[in-house]
């Protein structure tokens, strides 16, 4: 009955439009009060929810995304990609996806990448003859891959919620799935462009000189090497890597490219602080809900499903995939993690799923949700920049969702696609 009261309170609050963090806190408080767990457990768990070392990296990686969005790195990467692949029907969507994937190796933030790449690519694609709703869909879906390619804010949040899933292991595990997801998106992007005759004017634009484009993009190209290579070489931890990346981004923007002045730097710091503050507060509030659910054993029946043999491992995983894909249409990624990870950890342990592998699958499903209407944060950013309604992108988004689902099936069927790199690196 207490469990029913908790979830009933949460659903009612959500339907009433209460912010997700507040709804989780109030629902958890209902359980604490009914079970007489002590009201002091609320402030204690609020603090414990964010007093975790890996979370120190979160605000810095958010800052990295904001800095590189304003620094002009995306434009130089686009010029280099165009110089590399050339121009022709379907090439600009290919460039947009490739640059978004590369930006994921710098910031790990989907909305930041959607804004940075959209600011450069939407105008170029419009001049080349691509419809704005199609262009917004390409950019929004490509930006969703960023939470898979390290560094990833989503992986940091998951690591503090699941014992046995370290940040370095998750970062390494996300590389192959991130690349596979990006490649899967390229197929419908090029096919749709050529099938509908988009990009008829693309070849008329001049192709940037290769060596000049490479030279100008070199500072951006070096950023993932610095971040990931430094962690692998043991020069700094993931948390320290976030600080190094932020300092590097500020140096590139203010000294090298000179696209960021003191005023822009101040605005960037304020923007990153606001975004980080919102995420950290929601994480802290959700920890009260997670404490109540775990302490009262409300999710124990989920684990008994495995113990009693009601569902085998594959059937249970299929149910999880369907539920999370549906939830991803209406909730943002961080909220999905905070609500469902405490519920799914007992199931993960009961079926002996690898926590790193399961974390990557969960993040992959969240990535699909980030460009699946009606609640698609990346698609919302790209559509707003393109000046189109998000409903107009649905006819294109379905093809990209199908492509990502195909890659997801491969990751489920062959777990080594996720685990071989962290195992090879000794994580």
What does this structure look like?
- The chain is mainly α and 427 residues long.
- It has one domain.
- The chain is 76% helix and 0% strand.
- It has helices at residues 2-15, 20-35, 41-50, 57-71, 73-85, 91-104, 110-128, 132-144, 153-161, 167-173, 175-195, 210-233, 238-256, 262-295, 300-307, 313-327, 333-350, 355-369, 377-386, 394-413, 416-424.
- It is globular and about 70 Å long.
Keywords summarizing the entry:
427 residues, cell membrane, mainly alpha, transport, cell inner membrane, membrane, transmembrane helix
Sum this structure up briefly.
The protein contains 21 helices and no strands. The protein has 427 residues and is mostly helical.
Rg measurement, Å? 22 Å
State the helical fraction. over 70%
- Overall geometric form: globular
* SS strand fraction: under 5%
Low-pLDDT residue spans: none
Give the structural class.
mainly alpha
Mean pLDDT: 81
The total of helices stands at 21
Biggest pleated-sheet summary: none
Instruction: Give the number of domains.
Output: 1
